[in-house]
Specification:
disordered C terminus, about 180 residues, Aminopeptidase, globular, single chain, 5 helices, about 25% helix, about 35% strand, 8-stranded mixed sheet, alpha+beta
């Protein structure tokens, strides 16, 4: 599957992408905020990710930006399955931070999720990465009130983080969200 957003081209990874992928993600500041990326990020890790088979229900993409020299690898975004729900994940290479690419990529993947028939998508971020929470809110996610510990392979430890969700209107104007509201003080 391929998808075009305002500035980005979302496409599957190909085996020959491994070097660009490794160069883009081989940054401790990126990997420390991901659940499943190891640190240090090695050639073997990049080769495995680039050649990963696509699940048609939960696709993942490389984010590329057309340039005069071809295309720059901006990062990656996609859907995964977590406890029976679609979960959004993404990362952006450091040279592209602060330019709105994370929000654009998240919004694009949400549009794909809607087209694939997902009714709800969840996401979370590590507690010490509030910028990711800002991205999720800009993309339309709402905090559920839940905080979960997730194992971070790059840190080698479990890290707490807030959980977000977004539900799609089914055409009749109703949107259902399972939002846990904190108890009133």
């Amino acid at each position: 599957m391929f998808f075009r957003s305002e500035r980005l081209f979302l496409r599957p990874g190909f085996a020959e992408d491994w070097q660009d992928l490794r160069d883009a993600i081989a940054d401790a500041a990126i990997v420390r905020n991901l659940a499943t990326a190891p640190w240090p990020y090695r050639e073997e890790d990049a080769r495995l990710f680039a050649a990963r088979v696509q699940d048609p229900r939960y696709p993942h993409f490389l984010l590329t930006l057309p340039t005069d020299q071809g295309a720059a690898l901006v990062g990656s975004a996609g859907l995964g399955e977590r406890e029976g729900e679609a979960e959004l994940g993404y990362w952006i290479a450091r040279p592209f931070w602060g330019q709105g690419f994370a929000t654009e990529a998240a919004s694009a993947v949400l549009e794909i999720a809607r087209m694939l028939g997902h009714r709800r998508v969840i996401a979370s971020h590590h507690h010490d990465n509030p910028a990711s929470g800002s991205v999720l809110r800009k993309a339309g996610f709402r905090p559920t009130g839940a905080v979960e510990r997730r194992y971070c392979l790059g840190r080698g430890a479990s890290v707490p983080g807030p959980v977000y969700a977004i539900a799609f209107d089914d055409g009749d104007g109703t949107v259902e969200l399972d939002i846990e509201m904190p108890a009133a003080a």
